[in-house]
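@channel sequence for tomorrow's demo:
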Amino acid sequence: MILEMKVPSPGESITEVEIASWLVADGDYVEKDQAIAEVDSDKATLELPAEASGIITLKAEEGDAVAVGQVVCLIDTAAAKPSGATAPAVSEEAKKDAAPAPEVPVAPASAAPKVQKGAGIASPAAQKILAEKGMDPAQVPGTGREGRITKEDAQQAVPSMGSAPTHGSRGESRTKLSMLRRKVAERLVAAKNETAMLTTFNEVDMSAIFALRKEYKDAFASKHGVGLGFMSFFTLAVIRALKMFPAVNSMIDDKDMITYDFCDISIAVSGPKGLMVPVIRNAELLSFRGVEAEVKRLAVRAREGAITVDEMTGGTFTITNGGVFGSMLSTPIINPPQSAILGMHNIVERPVVKDGAIVAAPVMYVALSYDHRIIDGRESVGFLVAVKEALENPIEVLMNNQVKQALEL
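structure tokens (generated this afternoon):
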């Protein structure tokens, strides 16, 4: 029996995905639930598991954009599992469905593979690309069968720039952007072009938080199994400020302004496939322990590529921490359709004035980028000042002078 495997829907509103990589080769025997491919949507990279055991025949190539519901491979469930190194046997039914593979002569192990150059035979797609570049097909090496110039050959071909002498390496490489990276690029450009984005800055003396973490981090980690990091302080400070300035917790919908009475905080995380922004749902209901546990859970899932579309959908406000990479100051870009984003940066010992004396203190610069269409200067500056006040006096503002109770110790 031949099973047609179709692209499942990775989430609402997603109609197309891209084959990022095949984890198996054409003709391999696969086991049921074995990961056979990684597919990119515009929100995440997901694994595609085999729906049955059998011999697989691939029907799409890496880099292909395929619609949800499209057949991407066939699995011959009647084929027996090969034993040892014996080549897997393919049933007659699979042979009829699979396209015949071209015969490729095998060169001796000691000989380098030969590529015919100057054959000048190009596929229609390659001919169009070369014509746009103004290149003669006879001057392009072809890697296809019998030296045929493929679309990829044409894309990688570089017109001659003359024969002036050069020194050192002048190599280059071309890598196709993943669907996720292309979508991130589109959203960032849209945020710049479609919002009235401004950024306001402030600085935070982190001395009080440093002292709290030094005194309680071991007990906190021992009891709760997570570290007492900076994200819980910043998240709770942001939640307090959002309640004080609800316009910052709002979005534009056509001619309307939608203001939320809950705080779904998006946390920007660098993952293997690019920037991921998982969401802490109803963060206003969480304690220090709850925030730290959720941040850890989402960060691990994002870095392991296990994050789901649902976990990254929504969010009313974003926090991004460029400080982990050493950033001193930046202007973060709004995460649409949200209206504001808080940027954290690295913490550096800087001179500050306390009680009339200049002393060294751990200082972080913070930045709030916001959409000026619905957030005015009063709200933006007031919001950032409220965040600063909470972070510089966390015991009184965030813990109600009950440190152990707030940390659940």
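heads up for whoever presents: Confidence is low (pLDDT under 50) at residues 85-118.
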